[in-house]
Structures are given as structure tokens and as C-alpha cells.
């Protein structure tokens, strides 16, 4: 409902702002970079590992614990777009991966177990949207579409067993290709006749079917619902 309301507001704005000039057709290419938090939603896995380590420390005095922390992750992307009157057609690609692996440790009686969680995702979103011309050739845009995703989540331990963390598997890696959908909202400002800069929010959604671990018989789903904020530079060719 909120998305439909926003779309309605943009439609009204397009009509009101229609007096500002806008190119009939433009082909463009853009490069983007930004941040997202917790790609593939590993927060639940991290919370579970931390709770298990803290419970073990509570029951076994002398145990030392370093909790696992979630991360903001850089995102890099490229997109190709065609602006026709007030309609946006766009296809792009995004890649998100943390600069370092999330890790925690639990130690007792000289035995140290290091738990690592590594995750990354790549997606190809196709978008159809509405362009809203603003003053001085600036514009706002809103859109939605489908995306093809590939995601991977890996959970490993250096010293499994001993009751530290269960299950006692040394490593589980889950990965798969699956579909999803997204919403896009952005602003764009011209630098020259050909170049512009943009800022945008992308809400990605998609959940994989249960995928089998590459290391064990365990199965899990990958939930890549996430919010991405990106800034970019674009180059246009008028048609």
C-alpha cells in the first residue's frame, strides 16, 4: 500500500512538473557504488552462534568469548538504461561482499574455536519506472521489477565439537540461483550535457528454495531481503 501511494504521488508530480523540458529518448550507462547492511540476512545465524557461546560460558566458568559482529558491506554495480519520455527502462548488475569475514571465538582450557561467517551476493535487476522531471534538468525516478540472484553463505569452525557450538560440522556452505523482485527510488542531477550524478535506494527481495550444503547433508534457505543505498555517475546519448 505504501509503495502504491508513493507511485501515485510521483504520477501527480510528473503531471505538475510536465512543463519542464525533457529529452524524448536517451540511452545511458551508469556505474554505482554504495553500502548495504547484512546481505543475505545472516543476522539470525550470528545471533544463534553468539547465544550458544554465551550460554556455554555461563555454564562453564573460565570460558572466554568474542562475539560475532554483523557488518555493513560495500556494493558495486553497473546499469544500462533507456529513458523514453517519462518512462524508465533499466537493467543492471550489483555485487556485494564484505571486506572482511565476520568472526568470533570461544576458548576454554587452551582450546580455541574460531567461527567464521562469509557471505556475498550478485544480482541482475530489470526495472521499469517513472521519470519525474524537476528544475534545471534534474529528475526523480521510481520503479520496480524482477531480479535474478546468486547468493552464498558459508559458516565454518576451526575446532568443531567439544560442546562449543552445535552442530559439530566444520563447514557448511549454501549457495544458489533464484529469483526475486525489487523497488527503486532515486534522484539524478546533471553535471554536463552528457554526464550526471545520482543517488538511489534499492529494496531487494528474494528467498531461495532450500539448498543443500556443499559440505554436509544440511539444507537451508537464503534470504537476501536487503536495502541498498548507492551513488553513481551516468553518461547519456540522446536519440
Walkthrough of the structure:
The structure is a single chain. This protein is mainly β and 239 residues long. It has a single domain, classed as Porin (Beta Barrel). 13% of the residues lie in helices and 57% in strands. The protein is built from two helices and twelve strands, in the order αβαβββββββββββ. The strands form two sheets. Strands 1-3-4-6-7-8-9-12 form an eight-stranded antiparallel β-barrel. The longest helix has 17 residues, at 43-59. It is elongated. 28% of the residues are buried.
Q: Report the total helices.
A: 2
Mean pLDDT level: 87
Q: Let me know the number of strands.
A: 12
Largest sheet: 8 strands, antiparallel, barrel
Structure class: mainly beta
> Would you give the CATH topology?
Porin
What number of structural domains do the residues give? 1
Write a brief structural summary.
The chain has 239 residues and is mainly beta. The chain has helices at 2-16, 43-59, and strands at residues 25-37, 64-66, 72-84, 87-97, 102-108, 111-133, 139-157, 171-190, 195-205, 211-212, 219-220, 226-238.
SSE layout and pairing:
Elements: H1 2-16, E1 25-37, H2 43-59, E2 64-66, E3 72-84, E4 87-97, E5 102-108, E6 111-133, E7 139-157, E8 171-190, E9 195-205, E10 211-212, E11 219-220, E12 226-238
Antiparallel strand pairs: 1-3, 1-12, 2-5, 3-4, 4-6, 5-6, 6-7, 7-8, 8-9, 9-12, 10-11
Considering the chains and any ligands shown, give keywords for the structure.
mainly beta, Porin, 57% strand, disordered N terminus
